[in-house]
């Protein structure tokens, strides 16, 4: 039963996070991008803080290290990632599926940053090849016109790539800082801090609440992103992280683009291009090269699970 529970939650999480790219795209028709991201995390941060107060006895960061983790999370994981992502998705040439595929580069970038910040570790030739594959995948997906690099959404797609890099770097830096703060507390205060930073950036960009068109679509997109994709999505993510480990849960990033493409097609009439598919396959190949040892170590355990399942089925 637990095996089925994990599988159901895994695909629900992939669906929730994949459809979030469609919700962002839809909401950007009515709300300025950085303000949209800030309001999303105003709501999600309050919800997560309430959950942290309920689920832990450590709802407030303590000491310099814990507040340092919150600062890194606020600036990179929340503000940097979401501000760049929302601005990038503002370009009509960037589909929900394309944005999801670029963000799926995050696990690969995380591995690269982790090795870069650990002096004792060096990328092997296959590891370097994995990084190159990932970067090539982004270029293929972006499909820039050499005669006009500013056309066809290329700049927007590289902004989303920069967003993925912010998230990856933030993930590495938060893990490097010695802190015993519960993950719920870290996420809650990072969301609140990131929302405040994005409000400041939003004001600097000249965005205001007067620019918001409070349509049913805008409210639905904001509610979905704040409650389903952020608050509930992160709770499911943390649960699966404990149960499955980082290797298996990282695969969510590679399943999410499928749901992003389906949601974009169903609600926005978007059709994925050949470049989106090829770029995704190249990025996934790069991830597989970088994570080849961990994946190889994981395969025997997966085989044992399958063998055990088949034995019970025969019985």
UniProtKB/TrEMBL annotation:
It comes from the Archaea. Coiled coil: none annotated. Keywords: Membrane, Transmembrane, Transmembrane helix. The keyword Magnesium does not apply. Residues 8-142, 158-290 form the EamA domain. The chain crosses the membrane at residues 33-55, 67-87, 93-111, 123-142, 154-174, 186-206, 212-237, 249-268, 274-295. It is a multi-pass membrane protein. It is found in: Membrane. GO terms for cellular component: membrane. InterPro entries: AA-Vitamin_Transporters (IPR050638), EamA_dom (IPR000620), EmrE-like (IPR037185). Pfam families: EamA (PF00892). Its main location: membrane. This is Permease of the drug/metabolite transporter (DMT) superfamily.
């Amino acid at each position: 039963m637990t095996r089925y529970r994990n599988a159901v939650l895994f695909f629900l999480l992939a669906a929730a996070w994949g459809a979030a790219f469609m919700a962002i795209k839809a909401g950007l028709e009515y709300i300025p991008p950085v303000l949209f991201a800030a309001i999303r995390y105003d709501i999600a941060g309050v919800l997560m803080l309430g959950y942290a107060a309920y689920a832990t006895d450590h709802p407030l960061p303590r000491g310099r290290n814990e507040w340092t983790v919150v600062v890194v999370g606020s600036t990179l994981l929340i503000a940097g990632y979401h501000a760049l992502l929302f601005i990038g998705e503002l370009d009509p040439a960037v589909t929900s599926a394309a944005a999801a595929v670029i963000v799926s580069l995050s696990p690969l970038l995380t591995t690269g940053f982790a090795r870069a910040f650990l002096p004792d570790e060096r990328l092997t030739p296959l590891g370097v090849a994995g990084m190159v594959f990932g970067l090539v995948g982004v270029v293929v997906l972006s499909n820039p016109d050499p005669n006009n690099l500013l056309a066809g959404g290329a700049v927007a797609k590289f902004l989303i790539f920069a967003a993925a890099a912010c998230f990856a770097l933030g993930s590495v830096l938060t893990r490097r800082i010695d802190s015993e703060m519960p993950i719920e507390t870290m996420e809650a205060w990072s969301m609140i801090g990131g929302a405040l930073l994005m409000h400041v950036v939003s004001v600097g960009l000249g965005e205001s609440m007067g620019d918001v068109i409070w349509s049913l679509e805008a409210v639905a997109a904001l509610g979905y992103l704040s409650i389903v994709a952020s608050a509930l999505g992160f709770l499911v993510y943390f649960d699966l992280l404990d149960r499955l480990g980082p290797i298996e849960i990282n695969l969510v990033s590679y399943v999410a683009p499928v749901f992003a493409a389906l949601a974009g097609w169903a609600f926005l009439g978007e059709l994925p291009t050949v470049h989106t598919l090829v770029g995704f396959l190249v990025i996934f190949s790069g991830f597989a090269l970088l994570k080849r040892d961990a994946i190889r170590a994981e395969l025997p355990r997966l085989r044992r699970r399958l063998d055990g399942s088949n034995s019970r089925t025969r019985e």
